[in-house]
Amino acid sequence: MRRRDFLSALAVAPLPVSRFDQLTAQQESLLLNRRISLDELRAERNNAPIAPLTASVTVLHFWGDACPPCVIEMPTWRHIWGVLRNRSDLRVIFLGETHSEQGFRRFLAANERKLPDCEQFLIPYGDAASHLPGQRSQIRARLENDVQPLTLLMDREHTVRQAFVGSIQNRLSELQDGWTRLLRSLQGQPAFLAQTVPALSSIVPWAQREQAPTAAVRQLELSLLHHRLPTGAAGPEVRLLYPRDQRSHGDESWLRSLAAQRKYSKLRVQSVPWIGAVPGLLFLDADQTVRQAFLGITHRTRAPEALAALDRFVNVL
User: Fold this and answer.
1) How far apart, in whole angstroms, are the C-alpha atoms of residue 291 and residue 153?
2) Fewest 10 Å CB contacts: which of 54, 167, 268, 316?
3) Which of 31, 29, 154, 140 is nearest to 95 (CA)?
4) What is the pTM of this model?
């Protein structure tokens, strides 16, 4: 379905929602390449059976009856499900989180017409306000994130490929673009980075100052996800992209020293000039699909974050 058709099908009144800020973008980046197993989903449902994730992409949505933004955006999700319900390549699963199972079921009964009639599973937990590790569900503990609402795009290997922290009410086009690009990459269709490249010129001053990433920088990084590069290279790699006059900024030697470590031995490191105005790093899987991206001179400002992301990436290969 074309974007205009999709958005027109979701003709709902605009609602006050949290803006996309630096913290939101950072949380979304930290969720990438985490794996959720079906065993964890079964455990949360007291070992009740759950169908295998046979769809190419699964939309996993966490929400709670005590979360006002979750409740407010439910009519939007009902519209989304109405558009997607007959698609075999997309699956939508709702995970309702509550500290009162009885109260949650009363909420469901009272709001039946507002909720999508997709797969709805209940995850009981302890005191919702405590945020104690012992009160987290198994899935939340693995994700290391407690925000509601939370929407994840997962592939058949149960790996998080994109995350939306907070309400999706004013991010519908991003959500559709995300699953569209992901589906295309999983189907072997190449996608190019050309649409993102012009926007990079706007962050050149930031890159020159070598400061921590802004919300705009992180949003550009997230926009690079799922692009499948039309190259014949095989195997996972970390690709260093550099403007033709800026190769010697240190990221290459830093990466090659990492690649010498045993745990990163399956990764190739490749340096490639590109037309972008700032340097960058791409984590590419065996299909040459972008799993994560970092813009700027990474080793000087974001080495710990990049190393943690690289570990998650290697673990799901």
Assistant:
1) 12
2) 54
3) 140
4) 0.86
